[in-house]
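[recover] target loaded
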């Protein structure tokens, strides 16, 4: 399993499509809140509603889309979601140019984009499992993970410069165009995709199908603890992000460029972690690496509660974020591969959709809850409480491995 091996032309198009949309998304990072504040003169409550409601309602809208697309070809679904995001985002600059832009439109667009994001991710995961042999999934996920962290390092600074030169609306245009280019790339893959065959139920979508993804996760001995672990860690990290902005930019007086540097530079650790993961797995085994990296990523967030003004505080944030993101780079690559291995081909889309829906909804709820907690106490106290809770999350990691079905069948074939 070599990280530099070629996975073929079809994977190359898929990877290129992911890369261009990832860079577009990172370039436009934070554009909607800035448009709400600078163009529509919205207050903090409206900005918070825009951030939370888009995720929560988008997740709810995406619930029936998982089982709906499970037994359809995934590539047309992915193209449709890219085109949906392109059309929704392009409506913003068009409305702005005509003087019709409103807060309600931003809210509707954020919901549509969130639902399309969840659906695309689920379809993309299922398509990747069908496109790449199981032995190459770790390499493929490593390339996606490295691309994601590279985009996170480069996108926001470039987006900030673009906003300064052209305004936040133009970064939305760039994001929209990136989805159009992604759709073109996915269309260019060109191979005929076999339709997933349903073996246990009639082809008509039933009400019970909406819960199949969660049913599979919650009855699986390894996916269940991983599900609770990853949802809790990601929601606690994301819930404190606005509080860190308030603490650093407001209370401690850091300049915006210092704040951007503190969270952009450590993303290089994600790139390093993604590249190290395959070597660690080859040496120590997949389950041990996932367990160790998952435990280590819980040890860093509490340090953010001790930020102080000045250079020492900036160095502390960079060090904490670098450690956290490096561990996440290793964990995310191994975890994404492990989750696909543990899920049968006719359940992948529903499982990934359920996972993503729960994650988005939980992040929205926790962001609102931690905002309330910070209002009752202080941002520093709320960050410390989140850090203490994250320290408990390794208890939710699976202690025992579970050999995927295809590996059991391979082992039996050699006996």
């Amino acid at each position: 399993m070599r990280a530099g091996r070629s996975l073929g032309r079809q994977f190359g198009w898929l990877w290129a499509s992911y890369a261009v949309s990832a860079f577009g998304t990172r370039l436009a990072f934070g554009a909607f809140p800035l448009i709400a504040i600078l163009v529509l003169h919205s207050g903090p409550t409206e900005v918070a509603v825009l951030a939370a409601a888009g995720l929560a309602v988008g997740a709810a809208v995406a619930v029936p889309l998982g089982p709906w697309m499970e037994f359809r070809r995934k590539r047309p679904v992915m193209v449709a979601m890219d085109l949906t995001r392109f059309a929704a985002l392009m409506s913003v600059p068009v409305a702005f140019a005509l003087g019709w832009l409103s807060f309600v439109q931003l809210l509707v667009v954020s919901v549509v984009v969130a639902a399309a994001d969840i659906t695309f991710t689920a379809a993309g995961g299922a398509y990747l499992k069908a496109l790449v042999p199981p032995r190459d999934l770790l390499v493929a996920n490593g390339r996606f993970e490295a691309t994601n962290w590279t985009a996170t390092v480069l996108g926001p600074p470039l987006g900030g410069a673009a906003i300064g030169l052209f305004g936040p609306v133009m970064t939305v245009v760039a994001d929209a165009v990136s989805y159009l280019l992604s759709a073109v790339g996915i269309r260019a893959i060109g191979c005929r995709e076999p339709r997933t065959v349903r073996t246990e139920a009639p082809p008509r979508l039933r009400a019970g199908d909406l819960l199949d993804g969660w049913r599979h996760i919650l009855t699986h001995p390894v996916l269940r603890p991983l599900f609770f672990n990853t949802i809790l860690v990601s929601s606690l990290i994301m819930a404190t992000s606005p509080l860190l902005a308030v603490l650093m930019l407001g209370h401690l007086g850091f300049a915006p460029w210092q704040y951007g540097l503190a969270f952009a530079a450590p993303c290089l650790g994600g790139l390093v972690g993604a590249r190290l993961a395959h070597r660690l797995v080859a040496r120590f085994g997949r389950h041990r690496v996932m367990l160790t990296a998952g435990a280590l990523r819980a040890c860093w967030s509490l340090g953010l509660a001790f930020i102080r003004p000045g250079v020492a505080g900036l160095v502390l944030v960079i060090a904490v974020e670098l450690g956290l993101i490096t561990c996440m780079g290793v964990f995310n690559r191994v975890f994404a591969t492990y989750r696909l291995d543990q899920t049968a081909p006719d359940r992948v889309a529903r499982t990934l959709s359920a996972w993503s829906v729960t994650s988005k909804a939980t992040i929205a709820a926790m962001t609102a809850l931690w905002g309330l907690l910070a209002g009752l106490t202080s941002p520093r106290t709320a960050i410390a409480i989140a850090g203490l809770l994250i320290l408990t999350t390794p208890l939710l990691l699976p202690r025992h491995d579970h050999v995927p079905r295809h590996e059991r069948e391979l082992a039996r074939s050699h006996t």
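[recover] notes: Residues 197-203, 406-415 have pLDDT under 50 and may be disordered.
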